[in-house]
Amino acid sequence: MTNGDQPRATTGADLLALSPVIPVVVVDDADHAVPLAQALLRGGIRVIELTLRTPAALAAIENVAREVPEIVIGAGTVTAPEHAEQATKAGAAFLVTPGTTDRVLDAADATGLPYLPGAATVSEVMRLAERGLNALKFFPAEAAGGVDYLKSIGGPIPHIRFCPTGGITPQTAPTYLALPNVGCVGGSWLAPKDALKSGDWDRIETLAREATALG
């Protein structure tokens, strides 16, 4: 992939168009991040969300940003204002929050990065829309009502599009992706913990190819 062919995302809507599935990954060892990103890229996935749930997360983001520039690297589980700044300094190209507070939203805005703010209720969706945000994370997707919920709110709020995340599987992903207000889904199944631990990058590449075919 040449520099001109590298994927870019300047808005939340751009993020929804990068891949039918955004891998949502928890990394315990920062050294796993680069071979993981390379395996996903070989499988056709051009984006990855590394969650800020472990001490290794920021170093992992930095490693991928430096060594695998062909993939769009994002930071997930941004739950505090300082997370936004730390992720940006590490090289994240986008941010994802599980929910939203004014302080977190302000901090995300201040980075200048595109981001997907989390919402689980109609009121949260409307509040984010008032701030000019029209690409959101729907979390926790399955627990919050899943496909039926997104169908229901698509009528009164048709201009908002979502990346549902939480409990989605390869079997249920196509049903989500068929909805007009869904641009992509977030999936943790692309990087199973046992595959990461054992360095089974071929398995992750295979899972990535299967996920790419969902689009």
Structural topology:
Blueprint: H1 12-16, E1 21-25, H2 33-42, E2 47-51, H3 57-67, E3 72-76, H4 81-90, E4 94-96, H5 102-111, E5 115-116, E6 118-119, H6 122-130, E7 135-138, H7 146-154, E8 161-164, H8 173-177, E9 185-187, H9 193-198, H10 201-212
Parallel strand pairs: 1-2, 1-9, 2-3, 3-4, 4-5, 6-7, 7-8
Helix pairs in contact: 2-10, 3-4, 4-5
Describe the model.
The chain is α/β, with parallel strands linked by helices and 215 residues long. It has helices at residues 12-16, 33-42, 57-67, 81-90, 102-111, 122-130, 146-154, 173-177, 193-198, 201-212; strands spanning 21-25, 47-51, 72-76, 94-96, 115-116, 118-119, 135-138, 161-164, 185-187. The chain has a six-stranded parallel beta sheet with strand order 5-4-3-2-1-9. A three-stranded parallel beta sheet has the order 6-7-8. Helix 3 (57-67) links the parallel strand 2 (47-51) and strand 3 (72-76). The radius of gyration is 16 Å and the shape is globular. The mean pLDDT is 95.
Radius of gyration: 16 Å
User: Beta fraction of the residues?
Assistant: 15-25%
Based on secondary structure, the structural category is alpha/beta
Low-confidence stretches: none
Strands ordered across the widest β-sheet = 5-4-3-2-1-9
Spell the H/E element sequence. Answer: HEHEHEHEHEEHEHEHEHH
End-to-end Cα distance, whole Å, is: 21 Å
